[in-house]
Design a protein that fits this description.
single chain, 3-stranded antiparallel β-sheet, about 40% helix, globular, binds flavin mononucleotide
């Protein structure tokens, strides 16, 4: 109520990225106040129905999607707010400024956001330093995913180098790693989903993980592939088959869509990736397709348009075993993850 009646009107009166930066600051400061986070944790954490997926224990099914905390500034606050896991990033090997502002837009009539951020981030090495300082492995109660991208100026045929550099930097701190080849706002990134690039990329990542394991005498963290909702089913089948062939541990379905036909009420739609309620149906179709294709054997993290209990349940019914939210966190506020986690405790848990 406090968020809906007071904080949201203030935040929504600000330019969207300013509001995002202000929210980030508040969440970051909260994370540094140990009594505040432990109090929030006691009130909001939900771990009555943990699930095991790709060898990790998740205290609940509701995760924070990539992009909300690109630089790993507030994972301890997200943990205290009741998320069952947090994915930080996307990070690239070098820091980069992203696209020109304005690059984030609200479509309130559709409960949606449109963004063309373009992987603005402080770089993977800065992220790892932050994680080591404020949310290190062994001192967290929820899994941490780290989402990797390629730099804007890296040509597609050298993308593998960026993902491998990212992998090496984060592998000891990440509980899982996401290979993001589906953001619509880095020029040509989505072409990595075409077979010409996909095959060598996924094979290269597989080889790199095996070599890393051997060199460090450690098991590689699970690797997930984050895919776009805008591929046709033929391409989707190829992407998922290649991911399975190359030992990927799961799929995140999906990233944002560039198909503005899902927007029903807003008069104009800026260029960029659409997230939030309008993405729900498309994302569920993709999840259902992958689930069927893999005989429900490949873990799927469902992302896209979870806005209420019903849409979360529909994602699980479509075949997802974990869920991620971004846009509904902005629209519904900081208590939303814990409310959702308490209401959606029963998953199709894949062990
Ligand atoms: C402003 C914004 C920035 C995002 N940045 C990233 C990103 O850096 N990497 C990524 O994999 N996904 C990114 N996403 C996509 C989200 O992680 C999520 O997959 C998508 O928004 C669908 O979920 P939602 O409908 O709950 O928002 C971003 C989304 C938004 C709205």
């Amino acid at each position: 109520m406090l968020y809906h009646n007071l904080l949201k009107p203030i935040l929504f009166s600000l330019e969207p990225e300013w509001a995002h930066d202000l929210g980030t600051k508040v969440l970051q400061i909260t994370g540094n106040l140990k009594p505040a986070t432990s109090c929030l944790r006691k009130l909001l954490q939900s771990d009555r129905h943990p699930v095991e997926v790709f060898g990790l224990t998740f205290p609940n099914l509701i995760g924070q999607a990539a992009g909300l905390d690109k630089n790993g500034l507030f994972p301890a606050t997200s943990e205290a707010l009741g998320f069952g896991f947090v994915e930080v990033g996307t990070v690239t090997p070098l820091p980069q400024p992203g696209n020109e502002r304005p690059r984030l837009f609200r479509l309130p009539q559709d409960n949606a956001l449109v963004n063309r951020m373009g992987f603005n981030n402080s770089g993977v090495h800065a992220l790892v330093e932050k994680i080591l300082r404020s949310f290190p492995k062994g001192k967290r109660s929820i899994p941490l995913g780290i989402n990797l991208g390629k730099g804007k100026s890296t040509p597609l045929d050298l993308a593998l180098n960026d993902y491998c550099e990212g992998f090496d930097a984060v592998a000891k701190q990440a509980d899982y790693i996401t290979i993001n080849i589906s953001s619509p706002n880095t020029p040509n990134l989505r072409q990595l989903q075409n077979n010409e690039f996909l095959e060598p990329l996924l094979q290269g990542i597989k080889d790199h993980r095996e070599k890393w394991s051997k060199d460090h005498s450690l098991k590689s963290p699970p690797c997930l592939l984050k895919i776009s909702p805008d591929e046709n089913f033929k391409n989707l089948e190829q992407i998922v088959s290649k991911a399975v062939e190359n030992n990927f541990d799961g799929i995140i379905a999906c990233n944002t869509t560039i198909d503005s036909s899902c927007i029903k009420f807003s008069k104009s739609v800026p260029t960029g990736g659409i997230s939030g309620r309008p993405l729900s149906i498309k994302s569920n179709e993709v999840i259902r397709f992958i689930s069927k294709l893999t005989n429900e054997k490949l873990p799927i993290i469902g992302s896209g348009g979870i806005f209420d209990y019903e849409s979360a349940q529909r994602k699980l019914d479509s075949g997802a075993c974990l869920l991620q939210i971004y846009t509904s966190f902005i629209y519904r506020g900081p208590l939303w993850p814990s409310r959702l986690a308490r209401r959606i405790p029963l998953a199709n848990s894949l062990i």
